[in-house]
Amino acid sequence: MTKKLNLITEMLKRGRQLHDLGLSREAGRVFSRLNHLSHVPQEIAEEVQGRLAEIRYEEGRFRRARRHLAAALAYQPNNPHYHYMMGLAAGRRSL
Predict the structure, then answer these.
(1) What is the spatial distance between Cα 32 and Cα 16, in angstroms, rounded to a whole number?
(2) Which domains does the chain possess?
(3) How much is the CA Rg of the chain, to the nearest whole Å?
(4) In terms of Cα–Cα distance, which of 50, 59, 35 is closest to 82?
């Protein structure tokens, strides 16, 4: 489990770096890989869903953004940023 946890934390770190640098497409790939791994700790899974929602929103993929936001809200139902993003994405149409 330790090796897998190290992989998860390193992937999360890399995804954060790419997203913070504005390299959304590359960050989205890393976060998508993380999203498909099993046994990811809840706090990491929540961050991955939130960041994927932001990336998909920026890409104009609002339906996907809403799906990721719904998953993030399942982890953190009182997060105001997720609710705000959901409101923005709900008012938009996907490409």
Answers:
(1) 13
(2) 2-90 (1.25.40.10)
(3) 13
(4) 50
Question: Does pLDDT of 94 surpass 70?
Answer: no
pLDDT score, position 46: 95
Write down the pTM of the prediction: 0.89
Q: List, as one string, the DSSP characters of the chain.
A: -HHHHHHHHHHHHHHHHHHHTT-HHHHHHHHHHHHT-SS--HHHHHHHHHHHHHHHHHTT-HHHHHHHHHHHHHH-TT-HHHHHHHHHHHTS---
pLDDT digits 0-9 by tens, 22-44: 999 999 999 999 999 988 999 99
